[in-house]
Amino acid sequence: MKKALKLIGKILGVIILLLLIVAAYIQFSPIPTYEAKAPQLTVTPDSALIAEGRRLAGMVCNQCHMADNGKLEGKLMADLPKAFGKAWTGNITNDPKYGAGRYSDGELAYFLRTGVKRDGKYAPPWMPKFPHLSDQDLHSVIAYLRSDAPEVQASDKQHPAAQPSFLTKLLCRVAFKPLPYPDKPITAPPIEDKVAYGRYLVTGKVECYSCHSENFATMNMMEPEKTPGYFAGGNPIPNLEGVIINSANLTKDPETGIGSWTEEQFIQTVKFGKRPDGKPIRYPMVPFGGLSDEEVSAVWAYLQSLPAVHHPVDRKW
Ligand code: HEC
Ligand code: HEC
Fold first, then answer.
1. For domain 194-305, which CATH number applies: 1.10.3470, 1.10.1760, 3.30.1600, 1.10.760?
2. Which residue's CA is the nearest one to ligand 1's atom 42?
3. What's the mean pLDDT in 158-167?
4. Cβ 209 under 6 angstroms from ligand 2
5. Is 172 in the pocket of ligand 2 (CB under 6 A)?
6. Helix/strand/coil (H, E, C) string of 4-57?
7. pLDDT digit string (tens) for 13-56?
8. Ligand 2 pocket, 199 CB below 6 A?
């Protein structure tokens, strides 16, 4: 009996020691790197493509990358939950040494799709990935980053390296992995096909689904519709003061979702942050003034095509 206990004690000791070694290894080694297999790509810019890229960046990238001086030179990511560590959004001005000017068109495309930077370093989910964005829209962002728009003029701003927490490092070993680079062209459906176009907007171009489902941790990036609680809200997202704001249920459930709203009310809320009952829309929901009525109408049509989900969310009003 004593012998058996001693043996169990020894085995436990060895297991604990091994776990400690693994934990120390994760803590003291950087986030894993991958081979950056940038495609051959040369984006041919024209004014329409640049304008579209600027509009898209205004809705998707600027919130994180724009500094107080109006340039996309990056800043501390103030609303990152402490549990993930500290990160600075990159300088994506066209500076050839410190900005996105370091990247070739193919390297930018590869990074934005997969999350692998030109030097092979993987960016954790604090930088979103765009696996479903159409090639045309992806090229528009690249064309914009190269353009003479004032926001992207070269800045030599440098930021400290990210300080991922143990949790982030652990997750980068077991859960967060680069997304595959698409092996086929990606095209957006025509805007006349409202439901399909709305789906493209909310899963590919402006990604409403990521905030409006159950939790970022359970997001299914490759198959968005399989994300738990798809569009039923409740994702607890910190605002800039660290206060949690739960995202809204956008399914057509009349009681807990937006089933009693009209399309016009939806358009007003999404574009200008005006809810039908007059309550303000709080950060992190930033109104999408850059979307056209036709686009928001397509989003509405798509949301109406989804099943109603009865899911009360504590909106903390
Ligand atoms: C939620 C915040 C967020 C959004 C939205 C976002 N980014 Fe980022 N981005 C980051 C963070 C944080 C990093 C730094 C990643 C790291 O170092 O691990 C980053 C890094 C980058 C880099 C790499 C910079 C470098 O120095 O290597 C590029 C390029 C980039 N982002 C482009 C974009 C573009 C283009 C968009 C919009 C289509 C965008 N980002 C949207 C947070 C964001
Ligand atoms: C960064 C996360 C985030 C993104 C991206 C986002 N939302 Fe929101 N949204 C929220 C949060 C959080 C709320 C709740 C705000 C509040 O309670 O004040 C909200 C509220 C709303 C509301 C109000 C619903 C209600 O019942 O009050 C609508 C409508 C809405 N979002 C639509 C959209 C659409 C459409 C998109 C994409 C174009 C989108 N959101 C993208 C986080 C987000």
1. 1.10.760
2. 127
3. 95
4. no
5. no
6. HHHHHHHHHHHHHHHHHHHHHHHHHCCCCECCCCCCCCCCCCCHHHHHHHHHHH
7. 999 988 888 888 888 888 999 999 999 999 999 999 999 999 99
8. no
